[in-house]
Specification:
Largest sheet: none
Helix content: over 70%
Strand content: under 5%
Number of strands: 0
Order of helices and strands: H
Shape: rod-shaped
Length: about 120
């Protein structure tokens, strides 16, 4: 009977050991899952910070683009203000050239009439 009691204790001890090993494995699995979740949370937090930084950089770039567009518009306006008078001056210059050529021709004809050249 004592042998049966010892066998029962050994069996119970083995069953308890097996149960404990299973619980330890479950706990290890749970710890691994929690560790994985913490790593994901950390990665997501890092990515959120990167997104925020990119958002600030995009806003800054948009401000620079708007500033450059305003400068370009001002430059175009200034060029248009200069272009009008410049075209007018070119027209006057062309008129003066034409008048000079006409007057030269008239002077040559006048010389031929007066001096017979």
């Amino acid at each position: 009977m004592q042998n049966a009691s010892i066998a029962h204790q050994v069996y119970s001890s083995a069953a308890l050991r097996s149960e404990l090993e299973n619980k330890i494995a479950e706990l290890q699995h749970t710890c691994d899952i929690e560790k994985s979740h913490k790593q994901l949370v950390t990665r997501l937090s890092t990515e959120e910070n990167q997104i925020k930084l990119l958002s600030v950089q995009i806003s800054c770039a948009q401000s620079h683009v708007a500033y450059v567009a305003r400068l370009r518009a001002q430059l175009v306006e200034r060029l248009q203000r200069v272009e009008g008078p410049q075209l007018e001056m070119r027209g006057r210059l062309q008129t003066a050239k034409t008048e000079t050529e006409r007057c030269s021709g008239d002077a040559g004809q006048l010389d031929m009439k007066m001096f017979g050249m």
